[in-house]
Write a structure and sequence with these properties.
This protein is an alpha/beta fold. The protein has two domains: 195 residues, DHBP synthase; 93 residues, 3-Layer(aba) Sandwich (Rossmann fold). Helix content is 32%, strand content 17%. Strands 7-1-2-6-3-5-4-8-9 form a nine-stranded mixed beta sheet, with helices on both faces. A hairpin with a 6-residue loop joins strand 8 and strand 9. Helix 1 packs across helix 5. It is globular. The protein starts with a helix and ends in a 7-residue tail after the last helix.
Length: 325
């Protein structure tokens, strides 16, 4: 066990917070079996108490410690995608804390696919509750520096595992109500799930669906107002902003179309995985510029872009709002 992992385990066992990398984004972790430790996550993030957390596990062998029911599909999905960016919503065991589940009868569980996260979890030998390591509703962190910028010294330890390879949060699949339902899109898409399930999961959550992380209409948002614009409308929006004398940032998969002192243009990859990988780091960089607005070129529709478009839609809805909203 490395000194950093040894220190992280000791902090977690004392009820303290530890930030750590996963393959998706950095998480703000606490001992999921310690309700007072979990409460520190909510206090640090400014997160509503009824908003459930995801519990990260060392392996699928730990499922029975947290879930009282594991439908037939659970084993096949775990074998196919764990360790990896898939969260399963299952009926919780009675002893699982309301602080983790938001008072619901379900719990979100996953085995992350980052070697440092797995090393921590295996050394801790328990569940670590860990939402993204940022203020609630804001842009998720994909580097250790992002976490430090967000919380300063308020988190006792930030484990640095480099940039997160996926860059957006895990897919969330509900298995708690009989029919598999996709509650949050991620890098594992409906077609990927269908190959294991033998059917495409439902993608329109019902009113009685469990509340899950990242499901609010406004989320993943910069403080700078953000607008999604079509490729045809981007130049029009830019010209209007320049006429008004506004400083504008642009995030687009296309090369810079306008060169001007008031325009900062950041190009991202034109394919879904690359766009997703760069998305949050790019938004954080542009948010720090103090521009009047961020214009994001709307990606294509279709399943391959489902997760990216979900994050951008929620980011646009929450952009420019205060942390408390």
């Amino acid at each position: 066990m490395t000194p950093d992992i040894e220190r992280a385990v000791a902090l977690l066992r004392r009820g303290e917070l530890v930030a750590f990398p996963t393959e998706t984004v950095y998480g703000l972790g606490a001992d999921a079996a310690n309700a007072s430790a979990v409460a520190k996550i909510f206090a640090a993030k400014g997160r509503p108490a009824d908003h459930p957390l995801i519990v990260h596990l060392p392996s699928a062998a730990h499922l029975s410690r947290w879930a009282r029911e594991t439908p037939a599909e659970t084993e096949a999905l775990a074998a196919a995608f764990w360790p990896g960016p898939l969260t399963l919503i299952l009926k919780r065991r009675p002893e699982v804390s309301d602080a983790v589940t938001g008072g619901q009868d379900t719990v979100g569980l996953r085995v992350p696919g980052h070697p440092l996260a797995l090393e921590l979890l295996q050394a801790f030998d328990g569940g670590i509750a860990a939402p993204s390591a940022n203020r609630f509703g804001r842009i998720s962190p994909t580097t250790a520096d992002h976490v430090r910028e967000e919380f300063g010294g308020r988190v006792p330890l930030v484990l640095d595992g480099g940039a997160c390879p996926v860059g957006i949060e895990s897919t969330i699949l509900d298995l708690s109500r009989g029919t598999p339902v996709l509650l949050r899109p991620g890098s594992i898409g409906p077609a990927d799930l269908a190959r294991v399930l033998g059917r495409v999961p439902e993608t329109a959550p019902q009113a009685d669906a469990p509340r899950v992380s990242g499901s609010l209409e406004a989320h993943y948002a910069p403080r700078t107002p953000l607008a999604l614009v079509s490729s045809d409308g981007l130049l029009f929006a830019l010209r209007n902003a320049l006429v008004a004398g506004e400083r504008v940032a642009v995030l687009a998969p296309t090369a810079q179309a306008i060169t001007h002192d008031l325009v900062t243009w950041k190009q991202v990859p034109a394919e879904p995985a690359g766009f997703a990988h760069d998305l949050y780091a790019s938004l954080r960089a542009l948010d720090a510029l103090g521009c009047a607005r961020i214009l994001v070129q709307q990606p294509p529709a279709g399943e391959a872009w489902l997760a990216v478009n979900d994050r951008l839609r929620r980011a646009a809805a929450g952009a420019g709002e205060d942390d408390e909203t």
